[in-house]
Structures are given as structure tokens and as C-alpha cells.
Automatic annotation (TrEMBL):
Keyword hit for Methyltransferase: yes
Organism: Anopheles darlingi
Protein name: SET and MYND domain-containing protein 5
GO biological process, one term: methylation
Pfam families: SET
Molecular function terms from GO: histone H4K20 methyltransferase activity
Keyword S-adenosyl-L-methionine: yes
PROSITE patterns on file: 4FE4S_FER_2 (PS51379), SET (PS50280)
UniProt xrefs under InterPro entries: 4Fe4S_Fe-S-bd, SET_dom, SET_dom_sf
Keywords on record: Methyltransferase, S-adenosyl-L-methionine, Transferase
Biased composition (Acidic residues): 371-395
UniProt region (Disordered), positions on chain: 369-395
Domain 4Fe-4S ferredoxin-type positions: 84-115
Amino acid sequence: MQKVIVKTTKDKGRGLYATELIHDGSIIFEEEPLVSCQYSWNAAYGYLACEYCLYPLETAERNVQRLANDSTILLPLPDCCSVEAKLVNQAKCEGCGVVYCSRDCLERALKQYHGAICLGTDAQNEQHPVNLLVDFWKKMHYPPETCGIMLFVKIVGMFQQTSDPEGLRKQLLDFVHSSVNEDLRIFHKMLGDKFVQQIEQLYERFAAAFSVQSNDRLNWLSLEAFKSLIALVGTNGQGIGTSSFGDWVKNVSERQLDQQTRQSVDELIDELYNKMDEVVGTFLNNEGSALYAMQSKINHSCTPNAEIVFPKSNHVLALRALRDLAAGEEICISYLDECNLQRSRHSRQKNLREYYLFECQCERCESQIADPDETSEEEEDADDDDEDEDMDDSD
Ligand SMILES: C[S@@+](CC[C@H](N)C(=O)[O-])C[C@H]1O[C@@H](n2cnc3c(N)ncnc32)[C@H](O)[C@@H]1O
């Protein structure tokens, strides 16, 4: 039996509720996405991930050498690199040469979307309409990336290949979607103010790349439908980060080691993170995003009782309980990061209103309703830093 059901309430719309007692630390469910993709800049910068599931495609040692720009780095405990043994399973698309972590991923991609969108020998042709579209998108959406144009390209492939286009449309419509006014605010958040007016030009390239008007499977994709699809992905897209070095660090931390080895490995890890920080800053992972049917129905709480994890270092998402959950209890995650979660009610509400476009009605916010409606000086400073970063990002 499923440990959760979807229920609808007046205040928050749909949400997930426990159907039985769920223990602290246990996995509530695992879920494969409807579609996932690596971000375009992330791929262009040489981050190596399976085209289908985002599993890393280099050893932890090679990964850290590349990110720290130092080929002399050697990692101890090589058996903690779970990626290494799997690299022999890699498979390539014979048409375009794109790489998968396994034959299984290649076959799934071919069956779901890749058969229709494979560029074959044009994969490296900069003038191919799909490559022009990706290029145009990259100019609109600089790192840190929050959305991938390849999601839309793959969705097109899925519509061309599916035996049940109506079923696929229903799956998309099941994601929460918004009004035209809200869509506009979502574009501003996704692309920054100066690129919003270019959505029409993006659509022109998109429509040309897939001849949408003359394609029976795609002719519903008008400019308005395309905009709604972008907003849908902007609202529901879940970020994914995978890394063979991160995976190695996790395995090392779970390994029983004597005190001296533990200390020297921990020091090495700190040193390597510092080195990578100097070269690539916070851009450590293969990054991408995906649409998940169940995950997208989980509401936010400022005291979350569950969290999203990626236990297989690929796009398979899991929901993990952060404490014991009683049958009937709503299961919520935090949409805010740790740091923002620690802030005042006023600040959290401002953040959720601005980035997620809703008024938080969680228990913590309701219980703090009488708190002063102001941002502390410390929080204002942090807000200013965030704004400076946003401006740097859009340059
Ligand atoms: C990813 S969806 C979650 C599922 C959504 N409730 C649904 O009906 O599909 C996010 C949306 O849920 C609602 N929501 C989530 N957490 C909320 C909260 N703490 N208070 C009020 N609304 C919330 C908001 O409308 C938000 O835009």
C-alpha cells in the first residue's frame, strides 16, 4: 500500500498526506520523473552526465581533478567511488554520439523521446535549428541555471513518439499551473527582466526547429501554449545535482575508519573543496531539472517534516521523513534553503511571495502572525547581498 495519498484543501490546494505511521529517516516514496534534462551551460562547461538520468560519467578522482584544475590530485579509498565500476556500462547513441550511463538508459531515451529528436550527424552543426534554439536559450539564461530548454525539446520528442498524446497532455495538465499574470511574474524570476520580451523570439526558433504548425502532434503548441509550458516548468521544475566526487565524499563519511585516517581524509576533503571553490566557485555538480508528478504536489512548510533526496546519484527522487509522521498528517518539505528557513516570518513570507508567488499558511507562519512585519537589519544586509548576486548573474 502507498504510504501517502493526495488530498485537496481550501487553503493550499492539493497536498500529500500520510496513510500510516512513517518512521523518522525512512523513505516515503521514490519517483522517476516524467522528463529530466541537464542544463545547457552545465553541459557546455564539460560537466559529464548521462543524457537520460544525469548519473555522473567520470570517476570521483577525475571529477575533482577537473574542477580543481589540477591533474596531480589523487584520491584515497578508491573503492568509495561507486561511479567507477559503472563507467564500463556506458552506451552511445549510434546516430548522434550522445552518451548514457547504461544500455538501459539509452533504450529508455530512444523509446521515450530521443528517436524523434536525435540530430544524427548534425549534432555538432551550429546552424542546425535545434542547436540555434539551444544557443538562443543560453544567451537568455545564464548560470546559475534554474531551467533547461532541453526539457521542452524532450517534451516535443515525447509528443512525437507517444502512442497516447492525450494521456501525455493530461500528465502535463496535472502539474499545478497559473494565470497569465502569474506566468509573466514567473518569466521575470526565471529569466531576469531584460530577457522576458525575448520569449517570443525563443518561440519562433522553437516552432521553426520542430515545424510545430505543420505537425499533427505538435500543432497545439501555439505561442500561448508554449508560454504556459515554460511557466509550468518554472513552477514545478525540481533541481537535480549529481556528482561523482560528492558521491565519494558521502561513501567515505559512511565508512568505518580509524581516528587518524578519518582526520586526514576529512582534512583532504576540506582542502579539495577549497581548491574547487577557487576554480569553479559553487558550480560543483552536474546540474539539471525535472518534472515529478508526486513531488510537485508536496506543499511547503517552514517546519518541514520531510526532505527531497537523490539516493541513486541520478534523477530518481526520494522523499525522506525528517521525524516520525502520524497517519493523516500532511507531509511538507521546505521550498526555502536552510539559511532562509531560519529567518523571521516576515522574511520567509517575503521570499515565498517573491520567488514562489504564494502566501505561506503553514503552522509556523500562522503561529507567528503577531510577529513584527519588518526585516531586521541583518536580514536586510543579506537581502542586499542576494540582490547584488542576482545583478551579477544577469550580466
Ligand atoms: C508545487 S505546488 C504544491 C501543490 C499544490 N498545492 C497543488 O495543488 O498542486 C506549490 C503551490 O502550492 C501552494 N502551497 C504550497 N505550500 C503552501 C503553503 N505553505 N501555504 C499556502 N499555499 C501553499 C501554493 O499555491 C504554491 O504555489
